[in-house]
Amino acid sequence: MNVSFFSDLLSSISERGRGLIGFGRGDEPGRASVADLVKLSHELISRRGEASGVALARIILDRYSSLPQKDRFAFLIHIAGDFGSDEAAIEHAIDAYRKTPSRAAAHALHDAAEPKSQELIRRLNLAAGGTLSLVRLREDLIDLFQTLRTERSDAAVAVESLDQDFVHLFSSWFNRGFLVLRRVDWTTPAHILEKIIRYEAVHEISDWDDLRRRIAPADRRCFAFFHPALVDEPLIFVEVALTTEIPDAIAPILTKERDPIPLKAATTATFYSISNCQRGLSGVSFGNFLIKQVVEDLCREIPNLKSFVTLSPVPGFAGWLAREIRSPEPTGIRPEDRELLQLTEEPEWFAEAAMAEAVRKPLLAAAAYYFLRAKTATGRPVDPVARFHLGNGARLERLNFLGDTSAKGLKQAHGLMVNYLYDLDTIEKHHEAYANLGVVTASSAVQKALKFEGPSRAVPAAG
Amino acid sequence: MNVSFFSDLLSSISERGRGLIGFGRGDEPGRASVADLVKLSHELISRRGEASGVALARIILDRYSSLPQKDRFAFLIHIAGDFGSDEAAIEHAIDAYRKTPSRAAAHALHDAAEPKSQELIRRLNLAAGGTLSLVRLREDLIDLFQTLRTERSDAAVAVESLDQDFVHLFSSWFNRGFLVLRRVDWTTPAHILEKIIRYEAVHEISDWDDLRRRIAPADRRCFAFFHPALVDEPLIFVEVALTTEIPDAIAPILTKERDPIPLKAATTATFYSISNCQRGLSGVSFGNFLIKQVVEDLCREIPNLKSFVTLSPVPGFAGWLAREIRSPEPTGIRPEDRELLQLTEEPEWFAEAAMAEAVRKPLLAAAAYYFLRAKTATGRPVDPVARFHLGNGARLERLNFLGDTSAKGLKQAHGLMVNYLYDLDTIEKHHEAYANLGVVTASSAVQKALKFEGPSRAVPAAG
Amino acid sequence: MNVSFFSDLLSSISERGRGLIGFGRGDEPGRASVADLVKLSHELISRRGEASGVALARIILDRYSSLPQKDRFAFLIHIAGDFGSDEAAIEHAIDAYRKTPSRAAAHALHDAAEPKSQELIRRLNLAAGGTLSLVRLREDLIDLFQTLRTERSDAAVAVESLDQDFVHLFSSWFNRGFLVLRRVDWTTPAHILEKIIRYEAVHEISDWDDLRRRIAPADRRCFAFFHPALVDEPLIFVEVALTTEIPDAIAPILTKERDPIPLKAATTATFYSISNCQRGLSGVSFGNFLIKQVVEDLCREIPNLKSFVTLSPVPGFAGWLAREIRSPEPTGIRPEDRELLQLTEEPEWFAEAAMAEAVRKPLLAAAAYYFLRAKTATGRPVDPVARFHLGNGARLERLNFLGDTSAKGLKQAHGLMVNYLYDLDTIEKHHEAYANLGVVTASSAVQKALKFEGPSRAVPAAG
Amino acid sequence: MNVSFFSDLLSSISERGRGLIGFGRGDEPGRASVADLVKLSHELISRRGEASGVALARIILDRYSSLPQKDRFAFLIHIAGDFGSDEAAIEHAIDAYRKTPSRAAAHALHDAAEPKSQELIRRLNLAAGGTLSLVRLREDLIDLFQTLRTERSDAAVAVESLDQDFVHLFSSWFNRGFLVLRRVDWTTPAHILEKIIRYEAVHEISDWDDLRRRIAPADRRCFAFFHPALVDEPLIFVEVALTTEIPDAIAPILTKERDPIPLKAATTATFYSISNCQRGLSGVSFGNFLIKQVVEDLCREIPNLKSFVTLSPVPGFAGWLAREIRSPEPTGIRPEDRELLQLTEEPEWFAEAAMAEAVRKPLLAAAAYYFLRAKTATGRPVDPVARFHLGNGARLERLNFLGDTSAKGLKQAHGLMVNYLYDLDTIEKHHEAYANLGVVTASSAVQKALKFEGPSRAVPAAG
Question: SS3 of A274, please?
C-alpha cells in the first residue's frame, strides 16, 4: 500500500515532466542572449531568486538548452569565471581562522570559500525537471573541458573547478541512499527499454529481439539504478546470466539458439555487461553499489546460487601486447613467444585450430603478466576494467582464451575475456589489500599462467 | 504508465525499509559502546567504508538508535569534536591560495576546510533508510544543542558547527527539485493520515472525525510535500478551505455543522493551517514553495478561484500587548485605550457583546501597530507568522477581530486572526520590498486601522 | 511492472467513478416517474439499447437511485412483472424439445425461458459504476421481498423470481476467479478502513484506535476480497490473530493492553471475526474461499504456523437453551441440570467463581448436545455459524466456557465460544461427510463433553 | 490514491499468475487421460467441487492444456455430450410450467434446461488464471467446430451448443461494465506492446520502429480494452491519428517521414485500425463500445476536435467487383464500364496517371453501388466492415480512390478505402434506421457517386 501511495506520489513528478514537453507551457521561450542568461543566473542567487526561484530556474534552464553549442559554451565559461567565491570573504575567514583555528572557524572558512556556482546549481535544481537539465548541462561542460584541456588557460582551470562543483553536488544528490534498484525485464515500459538498448556499452544490443533474449528468459536478469528525480532515466545497469558453471565465452550467452535452464539448476550468476548511462554523471560511481546490491538480491531470490562472477572484456590488452611485441626488450612476453604472438595480427588466425592452439599458451602467459605485473604510473593494473573490479574487492578468477571472437573482442583483446569473482566474505579484505598495497588478488590458475613463463617471475599467491 | 513504472520502482525503498523494522534482519544488534561507534564512524570514512559502506552505515545507525539518550549525546559530542577538518590541509591550502588566489585555489581551500563530518553524514546516508535515521539523529543534535547552548564551551561551539553540516546537507538533499507534492485526502493510507493528525500544529485535530471533516469534503483540500527517501513521512502540509469569500473566523471552517459548497461557487482558497512535520529538518524551509505550488495547482484545477489568502493566527500579539499595557510609556497603544484593552484579560470578556464592541477599535488599532510598526532588534515585524508570509511576498490583507475564540486563540492573540493575501503578480515585488527595505505591505484597510489612532502615526501606504 | 501497468489500468475505473459523484456530470438528473423508468428499461433491452446502452443504463440507474423508496419498490414490482420470459417462445421451444429432446433443443428451451430481466440486468451493467448500482438496487429488492414475503401474491412470487435472477448473475460475476484478495492493514486508505469499521458484524470496532489494534500489530492480519468493478468496496473480510496456542476467549485478543508476539513464536492463526459487507450480494458466498485462501497465504508467509482455527460465537445457543429449560421434557439437557442452567439467567452470574464453576459442566454438556445432536428440520445443526464452518469442512474443536463475557456474548450464548479447526488435509473428507450424511465432525474432547451426560447418548466419534 | 490501492490489489492477481508459470507450483502435472479429465470435471460440479473447487479447477485446466490437440478435442466432445441438461428435470419443469405458466415456473424451466456445462465453466473459472485458460480452451472449441461443421453429426450439434454456453458466459463476464479502457503508448510495458504488434490485423506493424511511430508521437493515440481477470491481454484496440482534415489515404499516416502536428491544430480524429485480439472471445463484441468511449475521451482531452472518422478498408470489394465484371448481366456496374474496370486487374495499373484517372469514375460508381445497393441474403451490406460501422450508427462519409495502394489494399479493394463518420448526435438515429430498415446512411457525395451511373438508379438520400 505504501508502495502504491508513493506510486501516486511520483506521478506528480512525471506529470510535471510531461507538462514541460507538451502542452500547458504557455508561450515559447524566446531566444535569450548569453549575457541575459548570466544576468538571470545572478538574479537567481540573489533575493529575487528567493521569491521566484522555481520559475526563474526553469526559464534559465529552458533557454540554455535552446542555445547553440557555441553559446552554451560561452555561458559555461562565464559561469565558471563569475561564480567563484568571494575573495574578501575568504581573506576575512582566513584571518579569523588563523587567529582561532577552531572547528567553527574552519567551518566559516569552508563556507566563505564555497564557489557561488554551488549555490547556483542548487537553485537551478529548484525547477521541475531541474536535475535532468543539470545532468545534460554537465555533458556540455565535459565537452567544453575536452575542448579546453590542452590549453592551461585561466578559463580552462575555472571550467575544471566548475566541473568539480558538479561532481561534488551530484555525488551528494546521487548518494546510494537515494538510488532505487529496479529489475528491468520484458514487462518494463518500452521507453525505458529503448534506453537500455541505446546505453548498452559492452556488447551492443542489435534490436528488440536481442533485447528480449537478454531480459525475458527466466534465467536472465537485468537490474538498473534509478533516481526519483530522473524519471525514466536509468543511471547504470547490469545484465546477468544464470548458469550452471562459470562461463568462458560470451557467444553462448548471447546466442539466439539456446534453451533457458530451470532456475533450480542455476549455481552461478554471471555479470556479463555493466553500462553507465549518464555521461553527465561521470565521476559519480554507482557500479560498486550496483553489483553488491544485485549479489545480495539474487542470493535472497535464488538460494542455490553459489558463485557470482563477471565475464569481462579486457579492453587494454591488444594495445599493450602490440607495444610488447614491438618492444626490443619486452618485459611482459618472452622473446621466444614473440613470433607466435604476432600470429594474432593475422586475420581469422583463431579460426584455424592448430594456429589458435599454438597461440594459446603464450597469449595466456602474456595476459597473466598484463594483469598481475604490468602497472600504470601510479602502480595500478593497466586494464581499466580490472581496476574497477579489483577496486571493488573482486578477484581475478580465470583467463578465457577466445572468449569473445567478435570483431570488437578480437580488436581489443585478441578474443581474451576474463572472469572476476565476487565473494562477499573476502571483498573487504581484497579491497583493502588492493587499495593499500596494490595487491592484485588472483586465483591460483591465473597465478600459474604467469609462472609458466619461468620461475624468475613467480610471486607468492595473494588470493 | 511512467508513473506506474516508478510506483514499482519506489517499492524497493519501502521493502528495504520494512526489512529493517521487522523480519529478515538477521541477528539483533548487540549493544555498542560510544567508543565503538566512534571507531566505526572513522572506518566508514576510511577505505573500509569504500568496500563495505552500505553495511557499515546501517550498523552505525542501528546501534546509535538503540543507545540511551546520554550515550547518543556523548557520541554526537565526539563526532563534533573528532570530525572537523584537517588543520594541516587547511594551512597548506591557505598558503597556496595566498600565493595564487585563483578560483581553483579557493576551491581547494573550500575542500580542505570541509569538516570530515560532512563526508561522514554522506556515508551514513548510504544505508537503506539512512536519510530518515539521519533526520532522527538531527533531532538529538538539536536537543543536545539546547542543553549546551547556555555554556559557550568548545563542545557547544563544535556541536553548533556540526549542526550546520546537517543544515547544509539537508538543504541540498531536500532541495525543492526533489520534493513531491501530494494531495492528502480521505483515500490516503491511514498511517500517513495518522501523522497528519499528530503533526498538525495550528488548530489541533481532535480525532479521525475531525480529520475527515478537513480532508474529505469536496470543498476542502490538504497538500503535503514528501521526499522519496522518507517514505511515509510528510515534510510539511497545508490545509485549505474553498470558500465564497475571505473568511474572518476559524470556527465556521472547523465546525461539524456545515454543508460543503459546490466547487463552481468557490472563489477563494483559504490556507488556514500550515504545519512543519520534521523537527530534524528545522532550518530547511519548505513553506514558501508549498504555498506557491498549491496556489498554482489550485488555479489549474479550479479556474474560478480568484483569491488565495491565509487565515492565520497571531501568536505574538497577546504577549506584546501585555507589555504595552504594562509599559508606563506605551508606543503601540494610546494611553486612553489602556483601560479598554485591559478588559481582554477578563475571562469571557468577548462573550458580552457590548464589552467586545468597546474593545474592538482599540484592539484593532493596537494590532495594526503591532504588524506595521513594532519591530524586532533586526527591524523585522515582531510576529513570526507575519515574518513568514511577508517574507514570501504576501500582503497583510485584513485584521479579524475575534476570529478565533478558542482557548488558544484567546490566549495568544485575544482572539485576533489575520488574512495574508498571496497575489502571484505582486509576490516578487513585495518580497523584494520586504527583504531589502523591511517594508510591510498591507491593504489600505489595515493601514486605516493604524491611522485611526491619530494623524501623527500615518504612513504612506506600501501596498 | 505488470502490476503497475494494471494499477494505471484500474485508475480509469475510479476516475469514471469519481466523475459520477462530483463534477463533469452535466445536468442534474431530473425526477423521473416510475412509468418513465420502466419505459426506458424496455428501450434498454431493445435496439435503442444497442446503440446507446451505456448512456441509457446510466440514466436509468441514476434516476432510480434518486427515487423515494416507495417508487423504487413500485419500479421493481413492475420489472418483476414485465420482464419475465416470452410465453410464446417457451411454448415453441417446449414443442421443439418434445419433438427432438437434444442438447441443442434443451439449450433453445433454456434460452427461451430466460427472463428478460436477466438481459436487463446485464445491460444496466454497461454503465460506468453499474455493478455497484445494481448491488445497491438488490438491497431494495431484498427489502421489498421482506415486505411482501408474508403474502403469497403474484407480485411476491415474481419479485422472488427476479431476485433469483440477481443471485444467478451476481454468482457468475462475483465468481471467485474475479475476486482479488487484499491484506488490509494500517497502510490501507482510510476510506476503505472506514468501511471495515462499519461492516464489522461480529465484535464491533469501537473507533479508529480499536481498528488500529486489530490491523496494525505484527501479529495481526486482516484480509478482504474485492472485486475490480466495485472499487473501494470490500465484499467480505476476516480478522486474524496470530497466537502461540488456540485461544479460548475473545477479550485477550481485543484488549488494549497486550504486547504483540514475535512472528517466529506464532504457531496458530485464529480467525476471530468474519463479516460479509454487501447485503446486496447475499446469496453469493465468499466465506469458504476467503478462509481457504487466507490459510494458504499465511502458510506461505509464516511457515511455522501449525493450526488454523476460528474463535467463533454461538449465536443460537442461548435461545435454544432457554427453550430446553422451559421444556417439560427437554432432550438436550438433563432434568437434574435444569436448575443450575437457570443460574445463567441471573445478571453477573459468571462473575462469582463458585457459581460459574457449578454451571460449567452442565452448560458444556448442553452445548455439546446443541452442536452434535440438535438439528433443524432439514437435519442440519441448529447453529448457523456451525453450519457455515462445518459446511466448509472444518471440525468442531473445542467448547470455550465464558469465552465472551461481553453483553452480546452473554446474551446470545451465555458467554460460550467455540473453535473450529481448518485442517487442509481433511477438509474435503469432512465436507463430504457433512454434506452427504450430515455428520458433525468434532474433536474427542467435544464428544466427551456430550458423553458426560450419560452413556445412553454416546455416539461413535466422527472426527 | 484509490487507484494506487487498486494497483496493489491487482498485484495479487499477477503474482498468482506468476506462480502458475514458474516456481512454487509444486510437482509437475503428470499426464492425464481424457477419461480422467472428464471424471474430474464431473467431480468439480459435484460436492467435492464445493470443498476443493479452486484446486480441482486448476488441475483440470493445467492438465487439459498439456494434452495434445487430438485429446483436447476428445475432451471437448465428451463435455459437449455429457454436460447437457437433465432431461428428467426438464420434463418435470415443463409439466409444472404447463400447469401454471407463471414467471416462477418459467424461471424453474430456465434453470432446469441450463446445460451442466455452464456450471462447469463457472467452476473452472474458480481457478487462479481460470478466465484466460477458458478463453484459450474456447479457441480449441472453435477449431473443433470448424473441423466438425461440415458434418451434421450429433457431436457437431452438441459442440455448437457447448460453444453457445461459452458465448453466453463470456458475454456476461466481459460485459462493458467490467472492461477497462487504457491508452497504449510508448510508456506501456513491452510485453503488452508485443501483443499489439502481434494482434494488429488491418495494417501490419512491421517492427518496433513502426509501432513507435504509431503510438509515441503527440498526434497519435492507441486505446485498448482490458479485463481485470486477463492481465496483460488486450481484448481489442484502436489506432487513432489526429489530423487537420479527413484523410483519404493510409500511406501518409503510416509513413516514416512526417512531422507530428501540434495538438492545437488537430480537428479530426481518424480511427485507422481496429483489431480484435482474442479469438477465444469471438462472438462477444467490444468494437462498438470501444469507439464510442474513445470518441468521448478524446472530446474531453482535446476540445478542438470536431470530426471522428475512420479510414477503413473495404475487404469485400475486389471479390464482388470481379463477380460483377464476369457476370453476363451485371447489376452493380454499367456494361460500358466493364472494360475500364478490368484494367484494375493489370499489375501496377494505378501507377500510370492516365489509366488511373480513367478508372476512377467507374470504380467509384461501382463502389457506391457496392455499399448502397448490394445486399447479402439477409438484406445487409455485402461489406463486413461496413456492417460493423453502420451497425454502430456511423454514416458512410467518403469513398477514397487509391487510398491504399499496398499489395493487400490493391488485392482486396483495388486500393479503395472509405471513411465512416461517427457523429454522436445522430448515432442512435442511424443505428435504428439501419437495424430496423436496413437503411445505409451515406453522405450526399457518396449518394452522388451512385447517381452518376444514371437516373434510373437514383434513390432518396438516407443520411
Answer: strand
